[in-house]
Amino acid sequence: MPSFSQGDLANFPTCCRGFNPEEGEETLKSALEKLKFDAASTGKIIFKDALSIYEICAICFKASEAFQELESKGGEFGWLDLSNCSIHVTDDVLIAALDCFGSNLIGLSISGNLGLTDQAAAEVGWKSKTLEYLDVSHCIQLSDSFLNALSESSDFKRGNKLKVLDLSCCYDINETAVIVLLQHMPILERISIAGCSKLGDAALKSIFKHLKNLRSLDMSGCVFITPQGMEDAFSGEISCELEDIRCTGCMYINDKSIKNVFTKFSTSLKVAHFGGLRNISDRAIEFAPRYLENLNVSGCFNVTDKSLIHIRNNCEAMKRLELGGCSGFSNKALAEYLQYASAKGIEVVLPAENISGLDMGLKLDPEATKSLKHKVAKWLVVVLAVGLATIKTDLMSVGQWIRLALFTGVLCILYIGVFIIALLLFH
């Protein structure tokens, strides 16, 4: 176990406020020992979700025996996960972590850290030249300065190995910075700009122009992406083989936009999420390709039974279909598709308004159904019997009689309602 002197423990960065060396030494030792074990066994250093102040201090404490040992191992680990540590991971913490491990990092996640600013995030480009995975999603203080720093880092551009970039909900980044950055990411395979409300058609066009190896694109919530922008993005020759596209909440996208997606990537597309796109209909879904495995049309009110028929007859690889909030399906069509899905092992998410009256092809045990009806009836009889017994045995004033009658009536109505619902559900 590493040893710590009071002098060493006093050298923790000022960002670790509240740390008491006398009270926290044993906790810190345990955290460092766990860190050494995890790094050796999994190749990853993970501090996430309800991070303790002692673990954060351990990240910054480069002089400790434990971290010297980890640093000496170099390439034996390459992942640092600081996601969802909220305000605890500050600029000082990230810079200290990059100083320790930046030259060897393959993956870095700082997602959801509200205290990080461009100043620290910009260090990623200078100190992490081997990154393949970078997640800065929900770091709401990051802006164009961060992206510009990546673009301007000569070392980052020269040895750029980035394959995954998540910019989700970085609200302050704009199209110009994104377009410049994409020009320096030749092998990027997955990108998320979900919730980046300032990005629109120009960013989308740049994505398909520069990312020749693109496999996954999430642009959910990018409300300024238009049908014309989709058409322009797909108008030229596209060499990528897109497998996963998500554009939930892109309110202007229409049938023609989705048709372009389906036809352009007919042999590669496996996942398509179009939730909440009210302008798409059966005319788009009829082009869904045969290799599609996961389709989400939740909240697409104009999608009807025709789409279900097409999906059943043509989408042979389907594994999951989300229909929540779709009011255009008949119970008959849903029931027929559910029976088909059950036989094929397809997971189906149903519209809630159709579930209560839908025969979903599930065979309920008749004896269990009969037993439930009898139990509900017995509850009703018991309530009535208790009410009658109370009235018979108690001598009450007129006001008490009225209150008891009202109370018993309410109970009767309640249990009658339960009985009726049970009959409807288990007929």
UniProtKB/TrEMBL annotation:
Q: Keyword Glycoprotein on this protein?
A: no
Name of the protein described by the UniProt record:
F-box/LRR-repeat protein 15-like leucin rich repeat domain-containing protein
Name the Gene Ontology biological process terms: SCF-dependent proteasomal ubiquitin-dependent protein catabolic process
Q: Which residues form a coiled coil?
A: none
What the entry lists under Pfam families is as follows: DUF7885 (PF25372)
GO cellular component entries? SCF ubiquitin ligase complex
**Domain of life here?**
Eukaryota
* Keyword annotations from UniProtKB, A to Z: Membrane, Transmembrane, Transmembrane helix
Q: Where is the F-box/LRR-repeat protein 15-like leucin rich repeat domain?
A: 173-339
Enumerate the transmembrane spans. Answer: 404-426
